[in-house]
């Protein structure tokens, strides 16, 4: 399988995930601002999840561009990532329907943890397939953001025991930290030597 085919399949799955999430949005029962308030939880949950899916899509695009050949391990690591991302509509919907109550917010955090770990594992499998002189390994450097993200999601899930809003604020903080696609990979894609990144 070519990297382009794997990327196209992944893009299709992510497009379906976003479509499912937007179809879960309900129209307000009326045309007043008060009616809009009733669907605000769904809208906020959708925006947060849309941003995360967008982040994964942009960074996955850069990551796949560093791949010359797709191994079986890369395929399965990619499917693992897509599996956890495919649970976003479920976790998003439950969280919004239950108005951000504790257990759904914790579940959302757990899905985020597992998706972040899956992305990290995909990076590791790609690096291993490229051998000891992997340009990707050099570009990733210490990967502080990548290693810290699952920890912050776990902290957010734990915070939900105290306050769902604190947990959501921490989840949103992780999203803000990742809004800019991972620029460490651009030199690898363009064939330039890259420095070590965080």
Sequence stretches where pLDDT stays below 50 over 5 or more residues: 194-198
Number of strands: 0
Helix content: over 70%
The biggest beta sheet is recorded as:
none
Order of helices and strands: HHHHHHHHH
**Dominant shape:** elongated
| Radius of gyration computed on alpha carbons | 18 Å
Q: Please state the structural category.
A: mainly alpha
Number of helices: 9
Distance between the termini: 31 Å
When the domains are counted, the total is 1
List its salient traits.
198 residues; mainly alpha; elongated
Structural overview:
This protein is an all-alpha fold and 198 residues long. The protein has one domain. The protein is 75% helix and 0% strand. The protein contains 9 helices and no strands. Helix 5 (102-130) packs parallel to helix 8. The longest helix is centred in the first third of the chain and has 32 residues, at 33-64. 32% of the residues are buried. Residues 194-198 have low confidence and may be disordered.
Write the layout of secondary structure elements.
Blueprint: H1 3-23, H2 33-64, H3 72-86, H4 88-97, H5 102-130, H6 135-140, H7 144-159, H8 164-177, H9 186-190
